[in-house]
Amino acid sequence: MYAYSANERPAHRKTKRQRSGLPACFAETGHTTVVTMLEPSIRRIIDGATNGAFLKVHVESLPDAVRAVREHSATALLLSPSIARRHGLSAISGLVAKAPGVTAVAVLGEDWATSHSALLDLGACGVREVVNLAQHEGWNRLRSIVDQHGGECGRVIAREILVTMDDASDDARQFVATVVRLAPVTTTVRVLAGVIGIDPSTLMSRFFRASLPAPKRYLSMTRLLYAAWFLGMPKVSVAATADALHYSSPQSFGRHVRTTLGLTAAEFRRELPMKAALEHYRARLIEPYREILKSFRPLAPT
To answer: Above 90 in pLDDT, residue 158?
Structure first.
């Protein structure tokens, strides 16, 4: 855990491996990070109870929160309901819009009974998750949220895709589910294969021998499903979407869209909303390969 100051500035340009802003040990291990704007009492409870389960970056202002979420590749943004009384609702809405893919969570403590009005205000700003740490189930819910890279979007994508794969092998379904879970923070098949525990060349060879699209295609299209979801949100820009999905720049995101779909980023936003993007995915990566997927085992031990 450590606090964060808006006055801090990097002394040098980060290397590609360091761009997440994480300390080297966390960048290497994929340690989960959350950004918090919490009352001191709740902050102390979380610091004591989580005991290193995830890295916490505590901030005091909305600009600091935006910067910390981006630089630390946070999976969640924990907010005290009192933030609604200290900051304008439009500013809080802007914070949520600038962090697509990061789950914003209202965190309650012992004073939860007096927070109803503030929770309604946060809900109007786009904060969809609430955890009550005065209850045991609240801790379980917080851990579940922190462990999910894609938040609500990931759950929707997994449900919509896996429901069309009922007759696919367990291995194939597990591969797709893993890609959906990791896609927001995974940019290459090499990294994906490392997490799965398979040599990248072995993984690619299995798809090639089965006459399936390459794993890179599944990863690329899944990342664009997240992009479609983010761009469907009010106030979310192409730049914020590119940043949330770890593209090096909005231009890099635009090149990926054009290479994969033959569209500009603006055309993608206009012509391929989430529903259409899901249909595109199913039509090109699932439906033509139903028979193959029934017996395909991409995760079999080598």
So the answer is: no
